[in-house]
C-alpha cells in the first residue's frame, strides 16, 4: 500500500478510517495488515471512539488482543462509551473486560454515557461483569 502512497489513516466524512471500518466489521486479517503498514491504532472517530473501543463493544476478543499488542491505549477516552472498558462492560463481554483489566484499564475512569464501567455493566444487568469489576 505504501509503495503506491496510499494514506492508511485517511478518514471519511464521519471521521472513520480503514482500520476502524475493518475492525467494526470483524476483519482481523485486514486489521493486522493495516497495522503492519502503519495505521494509527489510537486514531479517534467521533462516533465510535478508537478501534479498541470498537473491538470491545463488538466482542472481538482476538482483535482486542491484537490491538493491545500494537500499542492501543487501554485508557484512551472518546466515542459513545468513553473508553474501551466501558464499551466491553456495556455489552457484557466478560473475557474482554478481564483482558483490559489485565492490561491496566482504569476501572474508575469516567466515561461519556455512563460515569464508569461499574455503572455501565449495572445498567445492562451484566452480573458477571459487575462481579469481575468488584473483585478487581
UniProtKB/TrEMBL annotation:
Question: Could you tell me which residues the ANK repeats occupy?
Answer: 14-46, 52-79, 83-112
Record flagged with keyword Metal-binding: no
Pfam families, per database record: Ank_2
An example molecular function term from Gene Ontology annotations:
transcription cis-regulatory region binding
The superkingdom of the source organism is Eukaryota
Cellular component terms (Gene Ontology):
nucleus
Q: Which UniProt keywords apply?
A: ANK repeat, Repeat
Q: Where are the transmembrane segments?
A: none
Gene Ontology BP terms: positive regulation of transcription by RNA polymerase II
Q: Quote the protein name from its UniProt record.
A: Ankyrin
Amino acid at each position: 500500500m505504501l509503495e503506491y502512497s496510499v494514506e492508511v489513516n485517511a478518514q471519511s466524512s464521519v471521521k472513520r478510517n480503514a482500520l476502524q471500518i475493518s475492525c467494526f466489521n470483524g476483519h482481523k486479517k485486514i486489521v493486522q495488515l493495516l497495522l503492519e503498514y502503519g495505521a494509527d491504532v489510537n486514531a479517534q472517530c467521533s462516533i465510535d471512539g478508537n478501534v479498541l473501543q470498537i473491538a470491545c463493544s463488538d466482542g472481538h476478543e482476538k482483535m482486542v488482543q491484537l490491538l493491545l499488542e500494537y500499542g492501543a491505549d487501554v485508557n484512551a477516552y472518546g466515542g459513545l462509551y468513553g473508553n474501551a472498558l466501558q464499551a466491553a462492560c456495556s455489552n457484557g463481554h466478560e473475557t474482554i473486560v478481564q483482558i483490559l483489566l489485565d492490561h491496566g484499564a482504569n476501572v474508575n475512569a469516567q466515561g461519556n454515557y455512563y460515569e464508569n464501567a461499574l455503572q455501565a455493566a449495572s445498567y445492562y444487568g451484566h452480573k458477571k461483569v459487575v462481579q469481575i469489576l468488584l473483585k478487581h
